[in-house]
Amino acid sequence: MADTMSDVFGALAHPTRRQILQDLKAGERAAGEIAAAFRATGPTISRHLAVLRQAGLVTERREGNRILYSLVGERLALSVGDFLSAVCPEQIVLRQTRGSGRRDAAERDA
């Protein structure tokens, strides 16, 4: 797990990769569309996409001669959540408290 965690945080270390993830939040995009949003060269963006793919943060599929990328949001959430839970256990308590408050309010409103 440590290696995969390192891959995820290594992938998140570069601002271009973080921006790619944010852009993919809106849905699947072709490699060319992703590259067009940056000043970097196509091969540079391709390397960034390879890092994200290796970390399991994006998936790719081929459609004809295009490569389409999608965000794997649950992988990101689980990796970061596991890390935060390990180094900041108070976050677990805060989430449980917030969740309980929302359930209580929903029950009152029902």
UniProtKB/TrEMBL annotation:
InterPro entries: ArsR-like_HTH, HTH_ArsR_DNA-bd_dom, HTH_MetalResp_TranReg, WH-like_DNA-bd_sf, WH_DNA-bd_sf. It comes from the Bacteria. Residues 1-91 form the HTH arsR-type domain. The keyword Nucleotidyltransferase does not apply. Keywords: DNA-binding, Transcription, Transcription regulation. SUPFAM superfamilies: Winged helix' DNA-binding domain. Gene3D superfamilies: Winged helix-like DNA-binding domain superfamily/Winged helix DNA-binding domain. PANTHER family: TRANSCRIPTIONAL REGULATOR, ARSR FAMILY, TRANSCRIPTIONAL REPRESSOR SDPR. This is Metalloregulator ArsR/SmtB family transcription factor.
